[in-house]
Amino acid sequence: MRTLDAALVQKAVATIRLLAVDAVEKAQSGHPGTPMALA
Prior knowledge:
By secondary structure, the protein is mainly α. It contains 2 helices and no strands.
């Protein structure tokens, strides 16, 4: 298994978090802070 670059991992995590926030907004259901709180 390759060693992953820490900066790349952080960028991927941030991207997934924001995609979760966008999904809540698009569904017009729930609070956009929920994915951030649960991440």
